[in-house]
From TrEMBL:
One of its GO terms (biological process) is cellular respiration. This is NADH-quinone oxidoreductase subunit E. CDD domains: TRX_Fd_NuoE (cd03064). Residues 1-39, 260-337, 704-849 are annotated as: Disordered. Belongs to the complex I 24 kDa subunit family. Belongs to the complex I 51 kDa subunit family. Keywords: 2Fe-2S, 4Fe-4S, Flavoprotein, FMN, Iron, Iron-sulfur, Metal-binding, NAD, Quinone, Translocase. Its cofactor is [2Fe-2S] cluster; [4Fe-4S] cluster; FMN. InterPro entries: ComplexI_51kDa_subunit, NADH-UbQ_OxRdtase_51kDa_CS, NADH-UbQ_OxRdtase_suF, Nuo51_FMN-bd, Nuo51_FMN-bd_sf, NuoE-like, NuoE_dom, NuoE_N. Residues 1-11 have a biased composition (Polar residues). It comes from Mycobacterium kansasii.
Amino acid sequence: MTQSPDPTSAATRPHGRQAETGPQGQSVFIRLGPPPEEPNQFVVEGAPQTYPPEVQARLEVDAKEIIGRYPDKRSALLPLLHLVQGEDSYLTPAGLEFCATQLGLTGAEVSAVASFYTMYRRGPTGDYLVGVCTNTLCAIMGGDAIFEELKEHLGIGNDETTADGTVTLQHIECNAACDYAPVVMVNWEFFDNQTPESACELVDSLRTGNPKEPTRGAPLCAFRETSRILAGLPDQRPDQGQGGAGAATLAGLRVAKENGMQAPEPRNRHRKATHDGFVGNPVDAGDQPVLGRPQVVDPGNLSASRRLPGNAQGPVHGPGRGDRHRQDSGLRGRGGAGFATGTKWSFIPQGDKGAAAKPHYLVVNADESEPGTCKDIPLMLATPHVLVEGIIIAAYAIRAHHAFIYVRGEVLPVLRRLQNAVAEAYAAGYLGRNIAGSGFDLELVVHAGAGAYICGEETALLDSLEGRRGQPRLRPPFPAVAGLYGCPTVINNVETIASVPAIILHGVDWFRSMGTEKSPGFTLYSLSGHVTRPGQYEAPLGITLRELLDYAGGVRAGHRLKFWTPGGSSTPLLTDEHLDVPLDYEGVGAVGSMLGTKALEIFDETTCVVRAVRRWTEFYKHESCGKCTPCREGTFWLDKIYERLETGRGTHEDIDKLLDISDSILGKAFCALGDGAASPVMSSINYFRDEYVAHVEGGGCPFDPGNPCSWRTETRRDPNGRHRKPGGPAGDGDADHRRKRNKRPQRHFGDPRGRADGHPDPAVLRPPAARPGRRVPPMSGRGRGTTKTAGLVHHGLHRRHGGTHPAHLGSRRQGPARRHGAAADQPSAGLPDVRQGRRMPAAEPGHVQRPSRIPLHRRQTHVRQAHQHLRTGIAGPGTLHLVRALHPVLRTDRR
């Protein structure tokens, strides 16, 4: 129905207002903030519109090779986008048109997919893309200090490039190297255990043309060449196989050797880890199920795989029998949920009719992206052939003739080692047609993602693998019936598949002799954070954190354990009261948490729990795909309230509102991302409510008594590329302003200065109360829209994560304007009044709003769907609860 354009209509008001009818006939008002500016252009000035004929011909040859890997050519879209990015260091109209032509898609379809992923650049990038991890774990170890130092040293801001075009600087999310924190990535190669000083030396070496070698991996190559490797093209560097898992990865095995630990004898099912819990002695290669063999043979050498029955003799079990081995062993998924792996395999339809007659697929989820989780990536670096062997066995068991390893794109060394391992397996006859004379055919493809945490969810991963935006699917049907290309599909985690060869080799009884009755076997525990010897510890399920900390040297000297995560950032927090909880699925679940990925992040008493949880909340808000209301809107408002608590504008009601919103998300989101965002919020308030109250009553973070409301000012760029200070006209803030700002003393929690090994100086991290007058700014309030490929939305391609258009930036207030904004009696003192829309507060000087994570037309669709649900009465509890809890976003009212 067309409305007349009167002054009160939605078309003429600055804040849209639309009236609909609810299920009982009451009026339902949906009020949104002003729509963000979303330019339709996907170009920057001077971007090529077409390729020269010789470039076009060369790219067509590469594209033909890439497309030929996949049963459906659309699956080649992500690799092709990597390929064309390698031409100009960013996506150009010419590159997008090339992808559309090769795959028979429209330009809109290609742009829609490219806009979803953060690794695709929309503006010129330097020869070296330098990323500093500033998620919670690296931040407490000094990541914030490194990032600030590099900004000052290079004279550029986040996602900006030096004048000579050499270095582009950005802050990134967790890159699965938490045992080496803080980490700097250069063209997605690891530089571990960095300090501000070493990071400055690193970028200086890049600018002088003598780059340092990565900690793990081959020598650096230019960013454009990196993109070609991500497309799956061969790495021509002669030393491409260098770089294994690293010393910290094998820390648990070193401890095992030092303590004379051997693999337990069969039937000793419950033997304690203090005597024989670490599986595998580096002296006895045959007893090492996962990480041990690299101690004896070259981890990149196929001979390690040839020694095992699955490869040496070909698949020795008939189709369907391998999953019974799995069921008998009790192996549970190692990706987080702990679902029985053999049971999952048994869901694959049997027979030759219906779904069973379709091709079967095996997909390995190697998209390890959750903050704190760092076991799969070092495992693949250590023993890539063990994973390949597990894939061969698993594919044979489920009758799959095509398998994929979906590996996270931001870890180039892993991608390179997997590609080499797969190439060696093909050359040796263990992949391809008629494997080892068995008559079994298997094609294996290593597929690089493009930067989207949501793709760790199995159905979102399938959509991404099919060349689409990575968004979770509605289930049922489940992947076992209708997965990849609508065919029966098994999706397993890296560690799960890598465990299969050891079970086949040593037998079910051997495997069940470790762990507990319901959680048998060994696993990898990742210890990181404030621990003396971080690393990967291979142990039977059921070991306790107290025992693991004993082997790891305990919490760092002079400090005590405050809180920890049993399974990464998405699991409820635990405290020092839970040191003796068995780390298996039942034991951790009994105390209200989840074993998850077994990522044990250790935090001592110097860490502000509110600050740590807020940074995780920012991450989940940034990574939300936006498909469902509870997650999309809930994470947005969680972060807003955390911001208020951090800056001294919070109230006691805000603490209860955090619980209310979290309850609206937990169990009501479309996938587990929403649960992961809500769990640490609720558990932290449960255990540390007094710390939240201190933020309210103390006017800000009690860990920063010298300047409780300070917040670092960020210099942004307007759409014309000029520097812009919040609150000032475009062009009046330049690099000099940034350098002056950065010269004042900075103390982030986790400043590593004074230590050469990259670990924090305890003197810096003493409780703030012991250092009166010391000014310590809170954790960097990074606008998540600026992460990875920020600053690109104003070049025309809107990402789900938002961008850096100055009119829409900021999940935070900037600089002094925060302290001199709206008065306490204005609506901004509490959750914003519905009349203010989504700006919070709208009248505060210097505040800029980040763009929505969802394109405007998609958000309008979500609003219409919410209206429809309310009109028809089919709204689920999550929708209705969120309508009541988040009245600034969706408000129900009666006239």
